[in-house]
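Re: your question from the hallway

Yes, I did run it. Sequences:
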Amino acid sequence: MATYIENYHDWLRDAHAMEKQAESMLEKMAERLEHYPELRARLLQHLEETRHQQRLLEDVIERNGISHSTLKDAMSKLIAFGQAMGGMMTPDEVVKGAIAGYVFEHFEVACYTSLITAAEQAGDHAGAEVFRTILKEEQAMADWARDHLPQVTQQFLQRSAAPDTEAKK
Amino acid sequence: MATYIENYHDWLRDAHAMEKQAESMLEKMAERLEHYPELRARLLQHLEETRHQQRLLEDVIERNGISHSTLKDAMSKLIAFGQAMGGMMTPDEVVKGAIAGYVFEHFEVACYTSLITAAEQAGDHAGAEVFRTILKEEQAMADWARDHLPQVTQQFLQRSAAPDTEAKK
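Structure:
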């Protein structure tokens, strides 16, 4: 048994861990990419958005009186997910990286969709408004990734089939 | 360096492993659910679709002359991802399960999007047609999961706040 507030606060902690993981994934992916400038530029743009989202989220967390020390517990669960995603996707390869990025954006879309309901139920309407704003940015990044995936795939396949051409990053 | 065909065949193996993982996730989720009949019914419907997709995929794999023994190698990579997704999402809880399901559907959406491009580049237009059909089913399942996530979240929160009521499954 848990109150609306208890579940909401748990999920706020999860969302914070998720945005930390997003920052780390985006940093690594953008850093590695050499031959896919358009993808890299969009990832760097979303990295800035992600850092801003963290600050928005921290404001909501502070307003809800959640202490910083309890934020760390949520991290450990998510790190396993992020590592598995990275490992499974062999992150040295641009297509799998682009797929991993797209999937992680949809993970964020789903978490904020639930968080909006939880915030409304807990009476934090200002928080729900913040999450709606963030959700739009996650959805836009996910849509961009989907729309550009055929192009990234095609570029990878062409580079991969050409002699003496680095295709993976 | 790899030819169009080599990359295409690698990704066909990955897709097969993915559908096996999807089947296993859907089976477990549907089996556990007790108090969310609408979600359970949709998962069971998609389980049937998933089994049919496996058969379609196996036809494409056979037409491409890929042996069954090499299909097993691709499995190991994906199992780690599926396990991490399950572990991270604490699958005994319906909201995290619904999020995990939604995320996995988008993983499939992205993989088939790339696979369509790879099939076309490799000259397997009949294969690309099969993947377009499957992609539509994955997208429909993902859309359903997103549209019903607020409702599942609300039901969970209400059951969770009520005394003597099982909320998690």
